[in-house]
Batch of 2 targets.
Target 1
Amino acid sequence: MAKSTDSKTFLLRVDAGTMAALEQWAASEFRSVNGQLQWIIADALKRAGRKS
C-alpha cells in the first residue's frame, strides 16, 4: 500500500472482542493495527469500485 502524505486522523471505537481479533489478524500479517485497518479499508474500497 502506498503511503500518503495527505493522511487524516480520526477516532474509531470498537468493542474489545473486535479489537482483539483485529490485533491477532494484524500480528499474523506482520502489520500494526493501524496498518491493518488501512489495508482493510483500501481493499473494501477497491472491491466496491470506489477506489482504483
Target 2
Amino acid sequence: MSYDGMPTPGRNDACWCGSGKKYKKCHYEFDKRCERLWADGEEVLPRELWKSREDIEGIKVSAEVNKGILDYVGEHIQAGVSTMDINDWVNDYLAAHDAVSADLNFEGYPYSVCTSINSVICHGFPNKDDVLKDGDIINVDMSTIKGGYFSDSSRMYCIGNVDPEWRRLVETCHESVKAGLAVVKPWAHLGDVGAAVNKVCTEAGFSVVREYGGHGIGKEFHEDPWVGFTTEAGTGPIMFPGMCFTIEPMVNMGAPDITTDKDNGWIVRTKDGSPSAQWEVQLVVTDDGYELLSW
C-alpha cells in the first residue's frame, strides 16, 4: 500500500490512472516522487484527486457554460437590474445549454447563483428588491454541472460611476488572482499561492478574509484541498500535475472581520460595513505550470 492507501500496481501492470499503459511507463515516477515528499514530512494529497485528460475535457465543457453565463451577465447587467433578474438569466441559460446549477440546493442554498453587492462578501441571495444602482459593485459567483463535471468562477461588475477607491479594490483583487496564478507550478507548495495573493492585497492597503477560500473541484463541487489566502510561502499541500482547484480571494477595503446572517445562515458581510471584492478562477496544475479552465 502507498502513502494514500491506494494499491500500488506492479511495474508491468496497468497503471492505476486508467490510461491502459503499463505502470512503469505512466505514473511510476510520479508516485515515487509523492512517496519521497510524504516521507520527508510534506503534505501530499491523495491521488484520487488527480484528474485525467478525459476529466479535464469534461470540466472544460462545463466551464464553457459557466463562462458563457458570466459573459451574458456582463453584457446585460446595469443599474435597474435586480439580483433576482440575474438568477432568472442564469436559469434560462442553464436550461438552454443542458446544464444545472451546482449552487442550487447545495447544503440547502436556495438559489442558482450568488449575488454579493458592496459589503456582502459572499453567498448573497438573489432578491427582486435588491436593485442595482449607480456606484454599486457586485460579485456574481456561478457554479455549473454539465456531464457530471463541475466548473466554478466569479467576476466583479462595476455599475456606472463607481467610487475610484472602490474600483481600486476591485482591480487589486483581480491583480491578486493573477499573482496567485503566477506561482502555480507542479511540486511547489499551495501556500505559495495564498502568500502571493495576500501580498498584493495587503500592500495595496486592503485586508483578506481568513475564513473563506478556494477549494478543489471537478468531480465534486467541493473537494480537497482548501485554498487559503492568508498562508505563508513554503507551507501547505504539494501541488501535483492533475490537481484542480480554485483561486478566489475575498478582499475587504476595511478590516478582515466578517459576520454571517443569523436568519438564513448564508449571507456573509464585512463586520465594519466596508465594501468587499472577489474574483474566482478554476485551474488544473500541469507538468510545467497551470491551465485555466473557468474564469
